[in-house]
Amino acid sequence: MYGRMRLTGSALDIQDLSHAYDGRRAVDGVSLRVEPGEVVCLLGPSGCGKTTVLRLVAGLEKLQAGRILVGNQVVAEPGREAPPEARGVGLVFQDLALFPHLDIGANVGFGLRGLSAGERAERVEGLLRRLHLEGYARAWPHQLSGGQQQRAALARAIAPAPGIVLMDEPFSGLDARLRRAVRDEALHLLKADRMTALVVTHDPEEAMFMADRIAVMRAGRIVQIGRPREVYTKPANEFVAEFLGDVNRIDGVARGGRVETPFGPLLADGLAEGQGVHVLIRPEALRLAGVAAGPAAGPTQGAVKARVLAARLLGRTSWVHLCLNTDPTHRHDSAVPGSEEHSHWHARVPGQFLPEEGTELAVSLDAGQAFVFAAGDTT
Ligand code: ATP
Questions:
Q1: Residue 340: what are its φ and ψ, rounded to 5°?
Q2: In 3-state terms, what secondary structure has residue 99?
Q3: Measuring from atom 9 of ligand 1, which residue has the nearest CA?
Q4: Are 46 and 214 in contact (CB under 8 A)?
Q5: pLDDT: is 93 or 294 the higher one?
Q6: What 8-state DSSP symbol labels residue 112?
Q7: Atom 19 (ligand 1): residue with closest C-alpha?
Q8: Greater confidence, 177 or 226?
Q9: CA-based angle 248:250:251, to the nearest 5?
Q10: For a substitution probing ligand 1, which of 52, 54, 64 has the most ligand atoms within 8 Å of its CB?
Q11: Which of 24, 31, 119, 132 has a 20 to 30 Å separation from 233 between CA atoms?
Q12: Nearest to residue 368, comparing CAs of 286, 257, 291, 259?
């Protein structure tokens, strides 16, 4: 079946979508194209409009402005909307209940057409097994836990390999361990059948795990779209940098195209003289003397003394709390504006690195993982 190239997924084209509830803008000019077979995550904080976009694509919300195309066919534009069942989309929504009068096997097999009874049973059993629901085919929905119902709903949506799968926080009801296992299986299932998927989540780790591309949303708009690596390592603004991962943050002022930091100056390209600047530094950008680290993303600079406040093992990495010594007598250049309030820093290093509290370390900076933004610029 998988020996030859098979392209099941359809393209999804969202064009200039806007939506208001009672006159309040929830979605504001969102455009996004999801290529066939691509998994795109809509990532953003609560209330930024992610679910509204998904509901509009699904046909669960009446379109107000914009156009939606599935496989190059218009499925919605103002005054002309295809019903949800005619859009070729599979839905996994938190509040989308299973059919209560059908057992789990019948729920999962519901959309399977054109298959023999044997093929149908095989597909249903395979999906139930992969989603850790083996043995539940004859159970009724009310006999399943919330998390099991969520997985059954996922199986039901994916079973017919629809042109597009829409998922809204599909793994949110699961505990951390099961969540990782189920989203891993979900990704395998999507990729095996080359399904196109648009997944809503507020969890950056989940988005980075699932997505070919991430569209970061804020206040009804997409503020950046790109591969997970791009949005993580080249955030378009402060909001994206902070939403995608931990940062150490210092304030400064642009002078001569640079901004001072405890690690020496960083480029502040294009910022006006005297402009207030926020510098965001990923914890993994701090290089601790004596710790083996991968290649740097940019030049490594500065070598500042720091005292260890605490160190914790987080599994594959260690998290080190540091008090940076920004006393000017320790550096050749002058004191850093605002650095007094920001002497508590976090470093993330690979593997086990657990120095005693009070240990003195030399810390340098991988400048490729430090981001400089104009203060107050959230565009
Ligand atoms: P969450 O992650 O919390 O679900 P979200 O990013 O998915 O958030 P939406 O559910 O799309 O955001 O909501 C966007 C905005 O629209 C919010 O301010 C919300 O309060 C509002 N909103 C959503 N649905 C309705 C509705 N049916 N009636 C009125 N306002 C709504």
A1: -55, -40
A2: coil
A3: 49
A4: no
A5: 93
A6: -
A7: 47
A8: 226
A9: 155
A10: 52
A11: 31
A12: 286
Residue type, 137: A
The pLDDT value given to residue 96 = 65
The mean predicted confidence, pLDDT, of the chain is: 88
Say which amino acid occupies 74: V
pLDDT at residue number 72? 86
What are the structure tokens assigned to 89, written together? 């989309």
Q: What does residue 251 show for φ and ψ, rounded to 5 degrees?
A: -100, 150
Which residues are 267's β-sheet partners?
258
| Residues near ligand 1 (Cβ within 6 A) | 21, 26, 44, 46-52, 202
Tell how strand 266-267 and strand 360-366 pair up. unpaired
17-58 pLDDT, tens digit each? 999 999 999 999 999 999 999 999 999 999 999 999 999 999
Cβ contacts of 60-65, under 8 Å, gap ≥ 24: 60/84, 61/19, 63/17, 63/19, 64/18, 64/19, 64/20, 65/16, 65/17, 65/18, 65/19
Q: Which has the closest alpha carbon to 265: 331, 201, 220? A: 331
- Ligand 1 atom closest to Cα of 54? 11
Spacing, Cα 54 to ligand 1 middle (Å): 11
Nearest to 370 by CA among 263, 285, 304, 244: 285
Query: Which pTM value belongs to this model?
Result: 0.88
**pLDDT tens sequence across 160-212:** 888 899 999 888 878 888 888 888 988 998 998 899 999 999 999 999 999 99
- Count CB atoms within 10 A of the CB of residue 177: 8
* 333 pLDDT more than 60: no
- Spacing, Cα 238 to ligand 1 middle (Å): 23
If we measure between CA atoms, which residue out of 285, 290, 243 comes closest to residue 261? 285
Q: What are the angstrom distances between the C-alpha of 56 and each of 98, 161, 374?
A: 21, 21, 35
